């Protein structure tokens, strides 16, 4: 067995620890969430409001305090997206 194979086959012990995923509605992040669930983590997640794409609290200080409280780690995958472009060139 090569060193890389050993890393790939190493089992991660199940956990009930809580992690936070900011921006969990994205395609790539959905895979992250799936992987975390497979390893039995509990997840606090934030997602974009599909009914109000302009609504964001991403830059408001303290807006994520409750969702990250008690978490052992945070995956920050959220970003500001602007959908209105006046001059795309």
Automatic annotation (TrEMBL):
Keyword NADP: yes
Key words, A-Z: NADP, Oxidoreductase
Extent of the signal sequence: none
Domain of life from the UniProt record: Eukaryota
Keyword Oxidoreductase: yes
InterPro entries attached to this UniProt entry: NAD(P)-bd_dom_sf, NAD(P)_dehydrat-like
Regions that span the bilayer: none
PANTHER family: NAD DEPENDENT EPIMERASE/DEHYDRATASE, NAD(P)-BINDING ROSSMANN-FOLD SUPERFAMILY PROTEIN
Protein's name according to its UniProt entry: NAD-dependent epimerase/dehydratase domain-containing protein
Record organism: Gossypium raimondii
Phylogenetic lineage: Eukaryota, Viridiplantae, Streptophyta, Embryophyta, Tracheophyta
